[in-house]
Structure formats: structure tokens, C-alpha cells
Specification:
- The protein is mostly helical and about 180 residues long.
- The chain has one domain.
- Helices cover about 65% and strands about 0% of the residues.
- It has ten helices and no strands.
- Helix 2 crosses helix 4, helix 6 crosses helix 8 and helix 7 packs parallel to helix 9.
- The longest helix has 22 residues.
- It starts with 8 loop residues before the first helix and ends with a helix.
Length: about 180
Amino acid sequence: MLPTFHFKKETARKLLEGEDTFATVLHVILLSAYGPSVYEADPLEIYSRVSEDFGAKIPEEGENRLNALLMALQTDAFYQSAQAFESIASALHSGDIGDDVEGVFDSITLPEALWALYEVKLNREDEDPLAPEVDEVIGRTISDEGSEQGMGYIEDHLESMKVDLHTQLAELGVPGEDLHYYLV
């Protein structure tokens, strides 16, 4: 672990072990603890280091969220592939990559799609244009759910998730307005 780790280890350990910890929070903790090597290291190596340094085991939901975010940050798959977009969106929202026992992927929901766009943009300096196939997935999701659930419900749900994210960041010691300093 880097000597410049900014946060209380016990608080970081608790968040690392949380099934509902957002990918952004995990990203901030690991980037602060290990620097940019997080982007190059094998995920199993990172999880082993987390166990050694924090005495924590990241649950499957956290691993899925973190892996999804790192894929979205390191490749253009989130923006260029419908299947990658749906898998990343599902993982960022719920910690589940969206596949069932038969390996078939569930369709994503509108809150999943919108949350993924928000959280990836929050963590990424640049934003690639969406490929037509990803636009099509988002358009289909909007037409399937937009009027069905009502945009008020979706806006309330996303706002609640943003509040929860900023609560976790505040618990860690990251003021929301300073988040970008921890992601560079």
C-alpha cells in the first residue's frame, strides 16, 4: 500500500466489504492505496493485496462492480458494444453482471442504463460517443420502460443512488465536490 493512503483503514475496510458499495468508492479506495497500478494489475492480485492490507474480502457484487468500472475506464467496450454496455450497466447498478444460469443475459432496465452512464462519466475524463448498437439498447429500454414506470420514479431512484454514493464517499472522507482529485 502506498504511504500516501488518505483514508482511515477501518472505514475503507468496511466499505471494501460492503455488498452495496459503489464502484466509484471502491475505485477511490484502491487508487489511493495502490496508485495507477490498479489499472494494470490482475484483479486477483488486487483482491489478494486488499486482503493483506485491509483484512477485507471484497464480495462478489463489489468485484463485479469494480471489474465493470475498470473495463469501462480502460477500453471503449462500454461505448461500442451493446453486450458490454448491458453487462457493465447491470454490474454497476446491482453488482450482478446480468447473466442467468444458462449464460443468457437479461435485458437491462432504464435505471441500470442511466446509472451506468452517470457512474462511468463520473470516473472517466473523456467520453466516447455511443455506437449505434448501444444507442439502440438505450432507446429500446427507454421505449419499454420510460412510460411504463414513469420518469418520476426513475428520477427518484437515480437521485437516491446519487445520495447513497455521496454518503459513502463522505463516510470515506471524500467531499463530493473534490472527487475528481482522487480519480487522477
